[in-house]
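Hi C.,

You asked whether I'd gotten around to modeling the 92-residue construct. I have! Everything is below, sequence then structure, no commentary in between.
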Amino acid sequence: MKAAFWRFAHQRYQSRLPSRLTDYAGLAWALFFALVYAAALLAGWWPNVPEAMVGAVLIGAPLTLGILHRRIRLEASKGPDALYRKRVETTR
């Protein structure tokens, strides 16, 4: 799984730098919906299973994508060939 992730990162970002805005957008989205769900829980609303699954998707998916994009951006900042080196390192 690591090898596939770094292969994707290298293929997508080998010629351009990842944007910080994407990191912040995913993290802000997750934070917003986490606050909405926390406020609803404090108000006495208890979700049933489908509502909890929607909440997990609205919070978990953007949070995961924001964190993964941040990892790519931090690795790419180490040098022009850092993503390639990471890709080769994980395939061994």
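If it helps when you're writing up: The CA atoms of residues 24 and 66 lie 7 Å apart.

Thanks,
B.
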